[in-house]
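Quarterly update from the structural biology core.
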Amino acid sequence: MWRACLLLGLLLLLLLILSSAATQYEDNQKISLFVNKVGPYFNPQETYHYYSLPVCRPDKIEHRSLTLGEVLDGDRMAMSLYEITFKETFDQKVLCKLILGNEDVSILQNAIEDLYYFEFVYDDLPIRGFLGHLEEGPVLPHNHKTYLWTHLHFTFEYNGNQVISANVSTNGVVPVSLNDVTPPMEITHTYSARWFPTKLSYEDRNTRQQVFFPKSLEIHWLSIINSVVLVILLLGFVMLILVSVS
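Predicted structure, tokenized:
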């Protein structure tokens, strides 16, 4: 019995090591960009599938296999239409064209009013940005305007044949107004990418990630639960081994 438990523990340790191993890429090799989740910025525990919004999506949605920690953290990773290969720099690619109806516009307006952020994943690095821009008006009478970001600019850093950092920006981009529009309205989503070399090692790449949420929102209770579950499982394995030996 104890041998089986020991073997299972070694297998779990091997899987953990393999999953954390650095992936190396050739120039222009395809790296999948996964869409993950969306939710209100000031309540990061409230998340929804990215494809719950009227956004660009493939004809058939394929989900990525998730680890226990990713499931507990509310991840919902799925394949996207983005095509960004290793070290490929380009100014603009068309992601898709959408026809938005009345309900689609209303969903996007409500999401932008709630300051929805999105999260993508590229080479296991999270990429976060905002769905749109909210322009507040005067207090009395209170009104505001909503704008949708239809172009995303990705920036990446690499060291040799490894991805070190991944970020997204809308600096210099003119958003599309969702105010006083008459659906159906057609919009075109585009994106661009830039790659820059860096001397930062792969082992230290997490230090390059920018802080997105305020410090007061960085406590993730699901991550804490995940850690507790893992500790309980490990204690269980130890107890089984001790009982078998005695």
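Helices lie at 2-19, 68-72, 102-113, 221-245.
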